[in-house]
Amino acid sequence: MSGDIIDDRMLGALHLRALDRGGFTRDPAVEHVAFQTGTLNALMDGHFDGDTAIGELLHHGDHGIGTIDGLNGEMVIVDGKAFVVHADGSVAPIPPDTRTPFAVVCTFSPYAATDIEEPQILADLLARAGTLTEQRSFTAIRVDGEFTDLRLRSVHAQTKPYPSLTEVTRHQTEWSIPSARGTIVGFRFPDRAAGVEVPGHHLHFLSEDRMCGGHVLGLSIEAGRLSVDGGDELHVELPAGVALGQPGRADRAAIRDAEGG
Fold first, then answer.
1. What is the pLDDT of residues 43-94, one digit of tens each?
2. Domain with 200 in it
3. How many domains does the chain have?
4. Most distant CA atoms of the chain, gap in Å
């Protein structure tokens, strides 16, 4: 891993500084900070080799999403525990020495929450989240409840030479689940983060019994609880050979294709 880190308050220019591996520190008194390893642009270009160990990642947050080495599935971090949903739909805990090429986490401490007491489609649920969101640059979202009509996806592990992410997702596996109780974990980042992160909402699901999950393509909620957190700082650690690029100038159409938006 290179020592580069980006401290992006998302309010203006990016600030770069050098950092030795293992030298990343975060003042525990500083709240509402997200930590990311890798960039979306690098993932789009086929940089699928894991760089940061999951055990290390979990030191920076207990709520998150991403993938694992070789793009071998969709990662969901709930309550400080990391799981991967493979392309066959199976769910497994992730060993702490497994590495990730791309993930974003935060310590989830919601500043607002509300009960969902009647059925809503995903678009309405996210609009509800928007009404709770304070004037912060990113939003972390968690929804616990009873869900129906879930449409989920994951991808197969890749081998070198790696294709682009867009090519991988052309062959993704998708499945439907009539109903499940569980948790949505995700983030919403602004358009100006495109390329560093996924602009808009990026959500993963994990069932309460840890038997199913995946990247969310669609769902409805019958009842549950919606909580939001967020902040203005995104710390991005760049693996060796990965550059920041130009945040906000990414190919949004390609991102929508890859992310199923």
1. 999 999 999 999 999 999 999 999 999 999 999 999 999 999 999 999 999 9
2. 1-261
3. 1
4. 50
